[in-house]
Design goal:
19 helices, Serine Threonine Protein Phosphatase 5, Tetratricopeptide repeat, two-stranded antiparallel sheet, 6% strand, 506 residues
Length: 506
């Protein structure tokens, strides 16, 4: 069943901590003590937070497109697309980049809503315990937001309180990366303790105890805390039946919007509702069109796409044809002007004659005709990634090789889909080689799903993957001293000098 987002108008959301429009006179603040009277009020506010997540600025295009283009699996297809996208892809972005200037404030608007929920629950006449599960949900969403922000921007303001005076935002300072991560972990631990094993109706667009544990595993992996990452992944694996997790038998079923609600493999998904939208970009989804093919139609997208984020040809040609995931992940032949054609005929006059990704375009459900404002469920975390985290972290932590290979081979077995490739990994491989293999399996298994850039960053692979001889998408200007972080939006620095200095190289 579709998760129904409730669009709340918190006046404070427009003023915290993005600092937007502080030059104007605030029309008033909806203080927690004046709104939160019952647990239902807390639930309503919690559900309202999802409107910022299912938003054009985040999972509807700007965040997801930024993460795709920043990695080595997606390149700019149509070079007529706005320069802000090309600059993200080409490592030429500046502090005024039109992608990040939307990502930063939208996440802080989401954070502002969660802070209102957490403080508002304290105002309930019967005490906060009556809304404990909603507070745990809000703490998960706050951790989710900061986890993206700290990886994108490094030191950022960490705000965990409801702001009653908009003018005070101008004096907030950045928080160290270590402290931000400590707070993310604390929120996820609290969420793990307070969330249920399953949400009503089995929806996967709201977090559970398994969701919080999966994100803890990911955070620990990012921090290089291998034992803790393995422990959390193992917790999820050991309790998969309680959480209802398993790999889908058919990899393709993960990307069919009409049937993608409540999938057993989805641990957390961002659920868009076709042909509906709210103010400020809520429920507006354009990732399908930007990854779709110009002048090529599908039954779900008869008007074609825009050919913006398109895999480099080498991504396609180096992927073994025997891997079923390749067939699912690409469109490499389709109807062009009424003729069934190979990818050489794709996107005529737009310089994108190469296979396009199919995951968000081919089966995007009911939509406005080009896959925009679609039915897509964008998976933020799925069970296959838990298995891969257990394999990588377990190997680094010294867990028995047989167990580590068991997790990796479970993912590979599903990828075979009745064929004999990819084969199970046999014992005896050198550790460094096995780490490389696991990372490459992540690259393929999670292809185009907004994970690759974060893997490149956490493993410091940028120089290798962008300037090496085997680069899938060469960028000789990649600078490891600059490009692992994005610039703090200049308009934020202009409003609050305490956010300086700017990140190195910008």
């Amino acid at each position: 069943m579709k998760h129904i987002y409730i669009f709340l108008l918190f006046a404070v959301v427009a003023t915290v901590p993005s600092c937007s429009n502080l030059e104007e006179d605030p029309i008033g603040l909806l203080a927690p003590e004046s709104f939160f009277r019952t647990p239902t009020d807390v639930e309503t506010a919690t559900l309202g937070a999802y409107a910022w997540l299912a938003n054009e600025s985040l999972y509807g295009r700007r965040l997801t497109l930024t993460l795709q283009l920043r990695g080595d699996m997606c390149d700019i297809g149509d070079r007529n697309t706005p320069g802000r996208r090309q600059n993200v892809n080409d490592f030429e972005m500046g502090p005024d980049n039109g992608m990040t200037v939307e990502i930063w404030p939208t996440f802080y608007q989401l954070i502002g809503t969660t802070n209102a929920v957490i403080e508002g629950a304290q105002q309930l006449p019967d005490g906060p315990d009556a809304a404990a599960a909603y507070v745990a949900e809000a703490r998960f969403l706050r951790a989710f937001s900061y986890y993206h922000l700290v990886r994108l921007f490094g030191e950022i303001p960490y705000i965990d309180f409801f702001i009653t005076d908009p003018a005070s935002v101008g004096s907030i300072e950045k928080t160290s990366v270590d402290v931000v991560y400590e707070n993310i972990i604390a929120d996820l631990q609290a969420a793990k303790a307070g969330l249920p094993d399953a949400q009503p109706g089995g929806v996967r667009s709201r977090p559970t105890r398994g969701t919080a544990a999966s994100y803890l595993a990911s955070v620990y992996l990012t921090r290089g805390n291998w034992q803790e990452a393995y422990n959390e992944a193992k917790f999820v694996i050991d309790n998969r039946d309680a959480f209802g997790y398993r790999l889908m038998e058919d990899y393709a079923d993960l990307y069919k919007a009409r049937t993608a609600d409540g999938l057993a493999e989805h641990i957390f998904a961002v659920d868009f509702l076709n042909n509906q939208s709210g103010p400020s970009g809520q429920n507006v989804d354009f990732l399908g069109p930007v990854t779709g093919i110009r002048a090529v139609t599908t039954p779900d997208a008869p008007n074609g796409g825009w050919s913006v984020s398109v895999p480099s040809l080498k991504v396609y040609t180096t992927w073994d044809d025997r891997d079923y995931r390749k067939e699912v992940s690409f469109i490499d032949s389709a109807m062009v002007d009424g003729v069934w054609s190979g990818y050489e005929a794709f996107a005529p006059n737009h310089n994108s004659p190469r296979p396009h990704m199919s995951k968000f375009f081919e089966f995007c459900g009911d939509n406005r005709g080009d896959c925009g404002v679609s039915d897509n469920n964008y998976v933020a975390f799925r069970y296959a990634e838990v298995l891969l985290i257990a394999a990588e972290a377990g190997l680094e932590a010294g867990i028995a090789e047989s167990e580590v290979l068991g997790y990796l081979n479970e993912v590979r077995e599903r990828a075979r889909f009745g064929s004999d490739f990819p084969m199970d990994v046999a014992p005896g491989m050198a550790k460094d080689d096995l780490i490389d293999l696991i990372l490459d399996d992540r690259r393929l298994e999670l292809s185009f799903e907004f994970k690759r850039w974060y893997d490149i960053k956490r493993r410091q692979l940028g120089t290798e993957v962008f300037t090496g001889d085997d680069s899938l998408e060469p960028h000789p200007n990649f600078d490891p001293n600059r490009d692992y972080l994005m610039p703090i939006p200049q308009d934020e620095l202009d409003r609050n000098a305490n956010l300086g200095p700017q990140n190195p190289g910008y």
